[in-house]
Amino acid sequence: MIGRGTRVRDDYGKLYFNILDYAGSATRLFADPEFDGEPELLDEVTIGDDGKPITGSKVQPKPEPVTPPDEPPTMIEPRDGPSASLHKYYVDGGTIQIAAQLVYELDADGKQLRVMELTDYTSEKVRKLFPNSAELRKKWADAGQRTEIILQLAERGISFDDLYKVTKQPDADPFDLLCNIAFNAPLRSRRERAERLRKEEKRFFEKYQPEARQILDELLEKYAEFGAAQFDLPDILKVPPISEHGQVTEIVAKFGGPEKLREAVGELQALLYAA
Question: What Å distances lie between residue 30 and 33, 35, 37, 39, 40, CA to CA?
Fold first, then answer.
């Protein structure tokens, strides 16, 4: 609807407006005099024989009276802390917060616009890419395929940062978050997955020498705190406390070479998402 939003307010710094006309029907009517009459602001110019304007004038419409508010609304950004991601605003003495984040999507023909909540939109896209959680788990456990999945979701406008905020689950493993949204699976935190692996897969750690075993445990702890991106090799080997075990070449040697290290980290990730 084109209405009060088109008015200019110099005192508020509002000197322009945008019209989002995805169907093309609203702006097309602006050129139709039968729709809303002739334009209110007219340019009257007299042109000389040489094609240059001689005189010009504008017909100004009478401005509609506008009563400004007593004082502009005040907006305060949230303070730092656990609730900082829940952007709370204070407006004229009341409080509001974002209840839902919406996604606007055109249909396959590019004509119909749908409005969906971000979680519903994510659920639909994930279920189109993967028929069930088992198929998603199989690919997510592989670091290369996991990167591809994240790129596929990003191409569809799905960000894990946004999902964490909307679901209020910043500690959830992204795989579990997707399965919870798309397949109604139980939601686990990264810490829960890490502790389950330590408890149920002791044989995996026992295959390695004590220092190599400690490095794998520190990798797992990094994941529990910050996410699966911490498995990226060799960058993570340069970050404390892992870097305290020596140079990258020294750390690699503790596993018997780069391929053995990658195999160990790959198996660690596969076991992490085995259940």
Answer: 8, 7, 9, 9, 12
